[in-house]
Amino acid sequence: GDRVMGLLWKEDIHNIQIVINRINPKLVSKGISLKIKDVVQWLGMDVCGMIYEDELQMSANNRGVLRVLDQYSFTYKCYYAMAKRLLGEDIVLPKMEESIMKRIFG
Of all helices (H) and strands (E), which one includes residue 63? Predict the structure, then answer.
């Protein structure tokens, strides 16, 4: 991310937002992955979207099912919020609840 940011700044592009994907709360809680706030602070950019790693999404992909279009799925809510933010709306990004994390990550 920081390399791409440097290349964009070199081209005089400064309105940069990031999408943090494949967020695995289990790895974050164990200290294996960086916390979202640490990534944001390190890169110094606004977050446009956050996409959590979702085992249900992975299994749906393997079956050819577009879970992202299921408006009741958490993945849909993440992409929906990101799209709204790209369109300029001030919408809060969804956060994975503890019960959902336990169900997905054990």
Answer: helix 55-63
